[in-house]
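User: I'm new to structure prediction. If I give you an amino acid sequence, what do you actually give back? Let's try with this one:
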Amino acid sequence: MVNIVSLLHTSIIVNDLLQSIDFYEGLLGLKADLSRPDLGYPGRWYTFGSQQIHLMELPDPENNVDIQIDRPEHVGRDRHIAVQVDSTENLAKLLDSNQIKYTLSRSGRKAIFCRDPDGNGIEFVEVS
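Assistant: Good question. You get back a string of structure tokens that encode the predicted 3D arrangement of the chain. For your 128 residues, that looks like this:
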């Protein structure tokens, strides 16, 4: 048996890297990890703690005329990544001021769900 110790990174396909950089760096305040090598396509890495988010500007395999994807309004019922934040209250104010739609956790936890500019789901969980 293999003992999985931790999640190292999650990769997200984006259509417009600059627009995504505005969201992840400009809005959320993540700092770019400049150690990303040239992988032959545009991208950006973000490191926080021992985890990373990898943005990859590549053709989206789900963006095909033969595929119809109906994403649920509540991101918690769709594929998403979850990150810990220090304050969901502050995050809600930030999202409101930038007119970004979000939903609150339906379980009563302090959690907010939204989508990035490409529709990728993100869960922000306040952990005491």
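You can read the tokens as a compact description of the fold. Here is one thing that stands out. Strands lie at 9-14, 43-48, 51-57, 80-85, 102-104, 111-115, 121-126.
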